Predict the structure.
Amino acid sequence: MARSDYAVQQARIEREIQKLQKQADVLLQKQRKPIVQSIIRTISEYGITQEELAPAFEKAARRSAVKSADSTSTSAKKTAAPRVKRTVEPKYRHPETGDTWTGRGKAPRWITAAEAEGKQRDSFLIQK
């Protein structure tokens, strides 16, 4: 295809995009119109004044500002260095092999085998 053909196609696509954007704007206005009318009807029904609305708008603006600040700080937290895992001192020790276990997670085979033989887990506790 020639370069001029691409330019013609690009211009046609851009016109189509503009046309679709205008249609989207018209649809949005149609959707908003009944909502605005409902708000005006409610304001009139309850006798709400501009002085009453101003603080509510300010409060909503502060809330949205805090939310956007929170979202930026959480994204900063995600990019921060990962947490350093703490080491946990062993709680149990095998008397013959010296193998140890912290007592967290799945029990090692030597503990489960000893318990199957009838020994108590407490007999492997490390004395401090």
